[in-house]
Design brief:
Blueprint: E1 3-6, H1 14-24, E2 28-32, H2 33-37, H3 43-53, E3 56-63, H4 71-91, E4 95-99, H5 110-126, E5 130-134, H6 145-155, E6 160-165, H7 166-170, E7 187-192, H8 202-209, H9 220-230, E8 236-238, H10 243-247, H11 250-267, E9 281-288, H12 292-301, E10 305-310, E11 315-320, E12 323-328, E13 339-346, H13 350-359, E14 377-380, E15 386-390, E16 404-406, H14 427-430, E17 440-449, H15 455-464, E18 469-470, E19 474-478, E20 481-489, E21 496-501, E22 513-519, H16 522-531, H17 541-550, H18 555-564, E23 567-570, E24 574-580, E25 587-596, H19 606-614
Parallel strand pairs: 1-2, 1-8, 2-3, 3-4, 4-5, 5-6, 6-7, 7-8, 9-12, 13-15, 17-21, 22-25
Antiparallel strand pairs: 9-13, 10-11, 10-16, 11-12, 14-15, 17-22, 18-20, 19-20, 20-21, 23-24, 24-25
């Protein structure tokens, strides 16, 4: 089906919005009246511009407060409509959106509404225009789609149909199954939007919090199935009022919008995309830095060893167990220090994974490589993080590690021996017998700070492109605002990525990202880290006083946690212990120990950690 987007969904001038929509691959646009009024282009020039971009103008909107009004008021409305229909002829568009009235002059009289809409449709027909009547969720007398349809059906005019809007329908809790009773040819237009589930005034909800399908809590796919069964064959159009989108750059927002429609069409069987290839694990995390020594010192203290160097690039491989960190000192390094730039995802089929990503508009990254280098497929995530689809030690597929030549290890590299989990009854306070007991085993999870305007886009991207499951969003109190986080994971938990966004736009360049390393004995790991010169994040004593009140912990265990800055959480499935290194540039490390079936990330401890980090100066 054709795709369209309302210009109100994007930021910028009308010309910028049209260009962004075309570049993202939309077939058409809805012209929002305010965008036209503010444009220096004439209707004819806008029409020509759309034609040059390959866009159709599918709808002009909105006309408000038209129907069920006293005769003198309706006469003024028809005069206004005549001017708009002439404008539409100049624009080259044939459908106008008429919203149900919110005017205090509107009467609760369906027969009058039908008669006046029929007169409006008569006038529109003379200009080659169709009228799509939509029930606003806050309409004065007409606020549901079935009520709007009953008025349209009663009017019985060929140039009068209905417009269905997923937000107006689902925000009121209406059952969309009744859509199937509307003849498909009388559904003149379909507008799609999602939204988070909020308890608030529906008008404010609509004007500020709509989002693209798949980014909120509505069953937009279920509604679309009913519309398709009714026989609708017009465009799928996005109409999203969102304060963040209005401030973000139009180009990336349009791509996000189009991706959401592709995923929506796939979910209801209207589009066939390459199947998702879910990553099986994290092959590596790549840090870029202008100076390798500060991060190398932290990695050594964590027990990792520099084992190999890329044969043609200034990239070192540090590893222990299944945890692998690449340190890149090439020209892409940020001036403000170390940052997490790329993730290697273990993929059962890297080529198919890249094909899926490309079909969902993920930018394919050109890669500078020597003839002998392994050809790695890579795309960019919305925040610019490079995602490599690769394999490690696969018997048939190329191994990315063959690009690296061994170097003499500067530390132990033997496999980590299995260790018994730390008990919550005191053994954690005395654990730490030998290096293997506290060794790092793998990357537990990665935390990526998103640009403030791309949080919802990032969650949809990782879910749709990578096939990961998105968990519920969590809000965390930060000393300077609210910190939002949402984790995505595969079914086994071998890939965990926590997506986060800080309190405001100024946090984009200052918020640190982090790599969480799993260990079977966090006390041993933390002690070893400190003994070789590592600096752990100090945690306020007040936290441990509260911890003693919340959990019955052995005094010795609690004292050990206090000494080492270890934080603790417990749920019905298991326990979680974690501590943090000082920040290096824009990156810090976390040591985590999971016991039992604990699947979270210690969110209850996040406010304490954030406050402690604000009090520390990062290392460069």
């Amino acid at each position: 089906m054709r795709t369209s987007i309302a210009t109100v969904s994007l930021s910028g001038s009308l010309t910028e919005k049209l260009t962004a929509a075309a570049r993202a691959g939309f077939d058409g646009v809805e012209i929002f009246e305010n965008d036209l009024l503010a444009s220096p282009l004439t209707p004819e020039e806008i029409r020509a511009r759309c034609a040059d971009l390959g866009l159709t103008i599918d709808l002009y909107q909105p006309m408000r407060d038209i129907e069920a009004v006293p005769e003198d008021e309706f006469a003024r409305n028809l005069r206004r409509a005549r001017h708009k229909f002439e404008l539409m002829r100049r624009l080259g568009t044939g459908t106008v959106l008429v919203c149900s009235s919110v005017s205090p002059l509107a009467l609760d009289d369906d027969a009058l509404a039908a008669a006046q809409l029929s007169q409006l449709a008569d006038l529109a027909q003379g200009f080659g225009v169709r009228v799509a009547y939509e029930a606003l969720a806050w309409g004065r007398h007409v606020s549901t789609y079935d009520h709007a349809w009953s008025i349209v059906e009663s009017a019985g005019h060929p140039a009068l149909g209905t417009c269905l809007d997923s937000f107006h329908i689902l925000s009121r809790g209406s059952d969309p199954k009744g859509i199937e009773d509307i003849p498909g040819e009388k559904i003149f237009f379909l507008q799609l939007a999602d939204a988070p589930l909020l308890a608030m005034d529906v008008l404010q909800w609509s004007r500020h919090y709509r989002c693209f399908p798949g980014q909120g809590g509505f069953d937009v796919a279920g509604l679309l199935r009913h519309v398709v069964r009714a026989g609708y064959d017009g465009p799928l159009s996005l109409e999203v009022f969102n304060d963040v989108f209005r401030q973000a750059e139009a180009g990336p927002t349009a791509v996000d919008a189009r991706r959401s429609l592709l995923v929506l069409q796939e979910s209801v069987g209207l589009a066939r995309l390459p199947d998702p290839v879910v990553p099986a694990g994290i092959a590596f995390a790549e840090l870029v830095t202008p100076d390798a020594e500060p991060v190398a010192a932290v990695l050594r203290a964590l027990g990792l060893s520099r084992t190999a160097r890329h044969r043609s690039k200034p990239v070192d491989l540090w590893e222990r167990g299944e945890a692998r960190i690449l340190v890149n000192t090439g020209p892409t390094a940020r001036r403000d220090g170390t940052s997490l730039a790329a993730i290697g995802l273990e993929s059962p089929n890297p080529t198919a994974a890249a094909r899926r990503a490309e079909s969902l508009l993920a930018p394919v990254l050109p890669r500078r490589r020597a003839p002998q280098d392994v050809p790695l497929e890579a795309v960019a995530a919305p925040d610019g993080t490079e995602l490599f689809f690769c394999t490690t030690n696969h018997p048939q597929l190329p191994n990315w590690q063959t690009d690296f030549e061994p170097v003499e290890a500067a530390g132990p590299t033997e496999p980590v021996a299995p260790v018994a989990p730390v008990e919550a009854t005191g053994s954690a306070g005395s654990a730490g017998t030998g290096e293997a007991a506290g060794g790092v085993t793998c990357i537990d999870h990665l935390a990526l700070t998103q640009p403030w305007h791309q949080f919802d886009e990032a969650a949809l991207f990782h879910r749709s492109v990578l096939g990961l499951y998105a968990q519920e969003s969590v809000d965390v109190a930060d000393p300077y605002g609210l910190f939002r986080s949402r984790a995505v994971t595969n079914s086994r938990g071998s890939v965990r990525i926590a997506l986060a966004v800080g309190p405001g736009p100024t946090d984009d360049g200052t918020r640190a990202q982090h790599i969480a390393l799993a260990t079977g004995d966090i006390v041993a790991a933390a002690r070893r880290f400190r003994e070789v010169g590592g600096r752990l994040l100090p945690i306020p004593a007040n936290y441990y006083d509260d911890l003693a009140a919340r959990f019955e912990l052995d005094e010795g265990e609690l004292a050990t946690y206090r000494e080492l800055g270890i934080l603790y959480d417990r749920d019905a499935q298991g326990e979680f212990r974690h501590c943090y290194t000082r920040t290096v540039g824009r990156v810090f490390f976390e040591l985590v120990q999971r016991d039992g079936g604990y699947q979270g990330y210690g969110a209850q401890n996040a406010p304490v950690r954030l406050a402690a980090q604000h009090a520390q100066r990062p290392l460069r």
